[in-house]
Amino acid sequence: MTTIQRPRPGAAPLPVISPDSGFDGCFRAVPVALVVWGIDGRVIDVNDAAIALLACTREQAIGARVNAFWPAPRHVLPNDPGAEHDLRRASGEHVPVLVSTAAIAHCGAPCRISVVHDLRDRKRLELDLLQARKLEAVGQLAAGVAHELNTPIQFVSDNLHFLRDAFGDLLKAVDALAAAAADGAPASAREIAAQAALADNEVDYLREETPDAIARSLGGLDRVAAIVRALKAFAHPRAGTHATDLHAEIETTLVIAKNEYKYVADVVTEFGELPKVRANANQLNQVFLNLIVNASHAIHDAGRGRGTITISTRRDGPDHVVVAFADTGAGIPEAVRERIFEPFFTTKEVGRGTGQGLSLSHHIVVEEHGGTLTFETEPGRGTTFFIRLPVASKRVPETRF
Ligand SMILES: Nc1ncnc2c1ncn2[C@@H]1O[C@H](COP(=O)(O)OP(=O)(O)OP(=O)(O)O)[C@@H](O)[C@H]1O
Ligand SMILES: [Mg+2]
User: Per-residue pLDDT averaged across 217-226, rounded?
Assistant: First the structure.
């Protein structure tokens, strides 16, 4: 069958598949990258989309090792669902791809065909979505953060009022001293007048209290600056992975989330010695935040009064670290344990939870960082979530788009 395609005005001419071109024509024209390779691991053929994706010529691709582009599977699964890899282009650039492979016969010899999907657009969308969710979380926390800012601001304001009055009293004392000094009275009377000027204006009291008021004001302003810094660090979009100090990120999240937990729980941190971990701090903050909010809700729901959230970190062998969030909350009932990582699964009423926190956290820890997210729970006693992360990220170099 000959297919005559009418190109849209301005569009590139479409490939024409004719009886002569047959399967080969279809193979070349399919708009998904196809790579045929032998059981010796060398490329036998590539279609046009593969050439564009690999960013090399057909001649360069044919005969090259598949492993030069992505880690080729030793065994082919029936109905291979595909696996994500970082494809290495001829230029050295990395492109996130999904590769599924099937066994076929090519010219009578057993070989493999890999379908390679370019995931750059999907990854970009995922990043946008994660950032949008993060900003949504910041929006939800905004009232609490405003409250947290209000306390030190109130504090600074009270101290500045005190300092203003103190300054007024000191000026009065200075004026009275000057008047006493200028007076033509005998020295003993001038001294009495000076003592009275100091006593009337409580100069000893001001001498004692003023440095404290200044120190308290500076402390309050440091607190405001720390909250603003944490908010900026939390909301700032940081793409890719970087050497990350997990303790600093946990502290940042605790500052932002304080209003969420402070009425129901004390937070205890038991930080071990950790190396910097190659991670996306922005994404991990989101996981920490969800686990802290979940723990606070669970403690509140247990109805046993104030509880404790213990955040501990430790190294796990040379290549991994573990961050654990333990709460003294209600625990997770057996009936729902299987479902808590499902998107939109929630036991909370509308407005308190949407059921996205753990599924998003799972995605971030497992898919984005090559780690694991697990939990242990005991109804009535509490729950501990464990984040286990590789020290080096799953994606060897930073993914570039
Ligand atoms: N620490 C915990 N203790 C007890 N139950 C928990 C705990 N963490 C999660 N759960 C259960 O798992 C469910 C799913 O949690 P998840 O964080 O995904 O969603 P959510 O907290 O309900 O809503 P969202 O996080 O989207 O605001 C919760 O509704 C709750 O039933
Ligand atoms: Mg949650």
Answer: 92
List the 320-327 sheet strands across, edge first: 265-271, 307-316, 320-327, 382-390, 372-378
pLDDT in tens, 19-68: 555 667 788 888 999 999 998 999 999 999 999 999 999 999 999 999 99
Name the closest ligand to CA 297: 1
Atom 17 (ligand 1) nearest CA: 357
CB atoms within 10 A of CB 44: 18
Rounded CA separation 139/234 (Å): 12
pLDDT of res. 398: 39
Q: pLDDT tens digit string along 349-365?
A: 887 888 989 999 999 99
Among 243, 288, 283, CA closest to 398 = 243
Task: Please indicate whether residue 163 or residue 128 has the higher confidence score (pLDDT).
Answer: 163
Q: How far apart are CA 29 and CA 385, in angstroms?
A: 49
> Could you give the CA distance from residue 122 to residue 95 in angstroms, rounded to a whole number?
12
For the whole model, what pTM was predicted?
A: 0.70
The residue to which tokens 């910097």 are assigned = 276
Please tell me what DSSP assigns to residue 115. Answer: E
- 277, 389 in Cβ contact below 8 A? yes
Q: Give yes or no for residue 327 CB within 6 A of ligand 1.
A: yes
- Structure token pair of residue 72: 């080729």
Compute CA distances 260 → 282, 283, 298, 338, whole Å.
Answer: 19, 19, 12, 26
Residues in a beta bridge with 97: 85, 118
Residues with CB under 5 A from ligand 2 (ion): 290, 294, 357
Q: Whose CA is nearest to atom 19 of ligand 1?
A: 355
Residues 153 and 223: their CA atoms lie apart, in Å, by 9
